[in-house]
Amino acid sequence: MALPQHSTGRALVVHPELRRGRSATRSAEARLAEASGLAAAIDLTVVESSVVPLARPRPATLIGKGAVEALAALVEEREIAVAVVDAQLTPVQQRNLELAWHCKVIDRTGLILEIFGARARTKEGKLQVELAALTYQRSRLVRSWTHLERQRGGFGFLGGPGESQLEMDRRLITDRITRIKADLEQVKRTRALHREARQRVPYPVVALVGYTNAGKSTLFNRLTRAQVHAQDQLFATLDPTMRKLDLGAGVEVILSDTVGFISELPPDLVAAFRATLEEVTEADLILHVRDIAHPDSAAQRADVNLVLRDLCSESKLESCVIEVLNKIDLLAPDERARLSNKNGRDAGGVPISAVTGEGLEDLRAAIGRHLDESRRMASVSVPLSDGAALAWLYDHGRVLSREDDEAFAHLTVRLDPADLARFERRYGRVLTPA
């Protein structure tokens, strides 16, 4: 699937738009701009881009004959090496377009896989990309690819009268997919062990999610003073990163930066990256980072929520998600003032700028409030001589009040339910609801 080495990097981007199925949330021009951004993310130079109206999909080429011929002339005139079709092409459609345009043709799924392949750095990320790419390639092995029809001789019970190159390639890909899935299962078990270790510490986990290029990594760096790669580019982050974040008043959390979502994410890619996205399903709090200055911010929000509903229960989405309205520094003054009114409650989120740092204290406070609300309030009396138990309560919870007499400290504390049980097991003292 790699681009040809002789490629000049000059690309044509085409967005086929069904006349009967126009999106109510995102314009064809916005989808074309996003596809152009995806192409630029793998260093293609987009020299032409076009929305192609489509009355109905053609089985042979997806788009109409007249559009195919017009674009063929454009490809030749502009010396285009790669044509990106912002849709899912069947193997036959991809082959026919390549024959008509005499250039490399990739569809939306292939383009996203190219980006993921270029960005993955960790062993896990590379395995996930390879799994998705092999699943995609296996669907490309069809009878229309005549060079795969060469017969290889069999040996009696092996391959019968002869195994075609197509069948052998499909079998090799299937075997490799099986091995990668086994490796990813091991990664999944390792992640579970890491989560158990964090629960013993324990720190609440806060996961950053959002549409690609919404500013998650910039926010992650600003909050944790980390050096995670952040760039104004689609899918700049693929591999998950976790850092400890001090919210003040003795409250510490683990902040997790995740891969960005995108509309019409290929199903195979969602499945392949489920191990990475488990950090979202296990998180105590989800911060949905939105690019509030983007013209399609509402549509991007809907796309992210669609993926989140596939990963998390409805009750979790209702109670454990805070919307972070990022990039307010790019808004007009009146719109910015409206969002900042009452800390953004009118807009249903917390307005911030990860670049300038504006609003981050409000965000920290919102995280702290949520964690407090999820904790239970309880009362306990601890002997003043038991310094270890008192220190444990101060380290793991929030002490709301304390009164000491001659022998005991009487405390009211907020603790996570799991910490309530840990304290009672460790120190043999029962915490009663306050």
CATH class of the largest domain: Alpha Beta
Compute the separation of the termini in Å: 62 Å
User: Please, what is the oligomeric state?
Assistant: single chain
Task: Provide the helix percentage.
Answer: 40-55%
Q: Looking at the structure, what is the overall shape? A: elongated
Assign the CATH architecture of the largest domain. Answer: 3-Layer(aba) Sandwich
Mean pLDDT: 80
Percentage of residues in strands: 15-25%
Structural class: alpha/beta
**What is the CATH topology of the largest domain?**
Rossmann fold
What is the CATH superfamily classification of the largest domain? P-loop containing nucleotide triphosphate hydrolases
Characterization of the model:
This protein has four domains: 10-115, 3-Layer(aba) Sandwich (Rossmann fold); 120-184, no CATH class; 203-372, 3-Layer(aba) Sandwich (Rossmann fold); 376-433, Alpha-Beta Plaits, CATH 3.30.70. It has 15 helices and 16 strands. By secondary structure, it is of the alpha/beta class. The strands form four sheets. It has a six-stranded mixed beta sheet with strand order 8-9-7-10-11-12, sandwiched between helices. The protein has a four-stranded parallel beta sheet with strand order 2-1-3-4, with helices on both faces. It has a four-stranded antiparallel beta sheet with strand order 14-15-13-16. It starts with 9 loop residues before the first strand and ends with a strand.
